[in-house]
Amino acid sequence: MKKILGLTAILFALSSATFAQENEGGNEHINVPAVVKNANMKKYPESKTHHITWEKENGNYEANWGGKDGEANSVQYTPVGNFIEIVKAIPVSQLPKSAASYIKEHYKSAKFGDVGKVLDARGKTSYEVEINGKDKIFDANGNFVKSE
Fold first, then answer.
1. N or C: which end of the chain has fewer CB within 10 A?
2. Is residue 26 situated within a structural domain?
3. 47 found inside a domain
4. Torsion-angle region of 97 (φ positive above 0: left; ψ -120 to 50: alpha; else: beta)
């Protein structure tokens, strides 16, 4: 009986460890296609030196790494490995002046979250500012575009 209980405990520990690895940093189980992982390593080889966590967002895959919170870089790929965009965390002071002015005017007592500079597959730059749990999108010149 002790052998069965011992074997059961070992199997449980191994399955828990496997699940934790597949969980990719605490997120739900995500089976990231090799083509997506390879695309990320090819485009951002520096990500190899960091722990990458993966999320699924609107059917696409998102790799996160770097910084204190592990999300200084957030890159999205299609399921076949095509690059969509990268969001690099930046301090609020690096936002264009017109974006900072817009935020001060419209969100005086708002709770700020992440601030990022976005570069998409076409080379277009924009900015994202998380305010009260929603992303406010600004164009490269800092003009408000939309709320997501």
1. N
2. no
3. yes
4. alpha
Centre a 10 Å sphere on the Cβ of residue 103 and count the other Cβ atoms it contains: 21
Tens-place pLDDT, residues 22-46: 334 445 578 999 999 999 999 999 9
Mind listing the pLDDT tens digit for each residue in 133-144? 999 999 999 999
Q: Note whether residue 1 is domain-resident.
A: no
DSSP 8-class letter at 48: G
Does this model's pTM top 0.85? My answer is: no
Q: Is the dihedral of CA 131, 132, 133, 135 positive or negative?
A: negative
* CATH code for position 46: 3.10.450.360
Find all residues with CB under 8 Å of 42, minimum gap 6, and list them: none
In a domain, 56, yes or no: yes
Q: Indicate left, alpha or beta for 16 from its phi (over 0: left) and psi (-120 to 50: alpha).
A: alpha
Domain total of the chain = 1
What range defines the domain where residue 141 resides? 32-147
Q: Residue 65: which of 82, 92, 88 has the closest Cα?
A: 88
